[in-house]
Input
Amino acid sequence: MAALRYILLAAAITLTLALLAHLRLPARAPLPRRTGRRGGLGIAALTAVYAVAAFWNLGSAHDPQRFCSFEAGESAVLALERETAVAAVWYYPGLSTGEYTLAYSTDGVTFTPAGTMPQGYADLFKWLQPEMTDAAPATAAYVRITAGAHMELGELALYDLQGDRIGVRDIAGPADADALCDEADTVPASSTYYNSTYFDEIYHARTAYEHLRGVYPYEVSHPPLGKEILSLGIALFGMTPFGWRCMGALFGVAMLPLMWDLLRRMFRDDRVALCGAALLACDFMHLTQTRIATIDSFATLFILLMYMFLYRYFTEGKLRHLAACGVTFGIGAAIPTHEISEDSGLIDAVSLMIGRTSGLFVGAVALLFLITLFGNMISWSMGVNSTAAYAAENGDMPAIFARRWAKNDMPIGSALTSGIVASVVCILGIIIELLSPDSSLFWSFFALNLVMLLLSYAPVFPAFLRLREIDPDSERPFRVPGGRGMLRVLAYVPMALILISIFFTAVPLSMDSETLSSYLPITIGSILSIVIGEILIAARARRHHS
Output
């Protein structure tokens, strides 16, 4: 597999150079307006090869499908075939979050606590092992698990010192308690990407399953269409890694002929189209992202379709292609950008299209835009506010950010503080606009936000290197080939790109008054933000030591 990665990288570089060379050299023959048989065979072969790579070891299609439903305080007792030492326990959480307590007994009457079985939001549909206590009994004839909340558990597997599965002769508890030990052949030797959720699958795969079950979805920060598409695979292949990943992989495969067709129509050359499709096939991000149960693959395919239909509308002039492209994309493409303001572009576009700046239709569009804007602001700010509250609870931010509403545990302190700051900035923008209509100072504040965002990502890469040095033995889903030198290259290159981006965003490269008026607020604001942050960190460290 390591050699394959280098081969794909070399192929991508070669194809890029070939494409650039072909576009620079004059055509030796008329470019065909339609694809020939050879071009069709080429993209068919490329798609078939990519499909094999995309679906190869995509995920297990054999995970627990039956779940035992527990209410808070409810227990299930497993009577083992014999009294024996329990060397290992594996369990597979279903929906809902909480924690189970694990207890052992030799007589079925007196149980001694042996550990806990967490079922957090990041633990669902993932093979896990309990957190055992130091005083866990040496042997057990009965095993009891007690739920701390309403939860579902798919499978519970016990192993002895020889690594053999311990048989269960009877299960007492909820009506569906037999589901705990009815799919023994699904228990893996270890928990990996192949049999468990990982990355953002903990949100999207779970939510897709909840849509199928008719349960209120956990992840509501994105529209539901992507999760509905994921649920099609789950309906076909079950709530398994293959089931929740197959639709994304299928959409990734479909992007190749779609990209090929778009390039073929644009360049009217089979070689260019096949070369572009091959570049997409060799793109590691494309292969990786489409093999994970996230919604990005679906958005990318539909964006490609929009470009395809828009291009066909311009070249063929058929209105159905413009309609297929979508109303919003049609507005963005049909209106001259120099007539649209940065802050009211949608309203300007609608006004220019209908020839009016007011009226019911313009008002309706403005209202829908505000609803969308507020919806996005609320969903994104909730994540930021929760992070700030967590940091404040650990003493890394002022205590005001840690305040939560007792009714629903919402981070009200962070929300109010960020709302006050945002309001002050908006009022400041109005004042600046009134005092100096031509000033770009207000927009410099927004550029400062970009610099701060990039700065927050810069330490991620050296932190990655540090973690690999101090904790090299932890199991990870992916291992970077090439040794320590390759690790440094992969860490320092993106970090350097981020720092370069910050430099060109925050540092004036010319000393004329116009450039300085645009860049100096960003430069000064960046420096002040870093200095204030370091002062706060140092003050916290002094308080901690004292």
About this structure: The beta strands are 68-70, 75-84, 88-93, 98-105, 112-119, 131-132, 140-147, 151-159, 168-172. The longest strand covers residues 75-84. The CA atoms of residues 506 and 527 lie 10 Å apart.
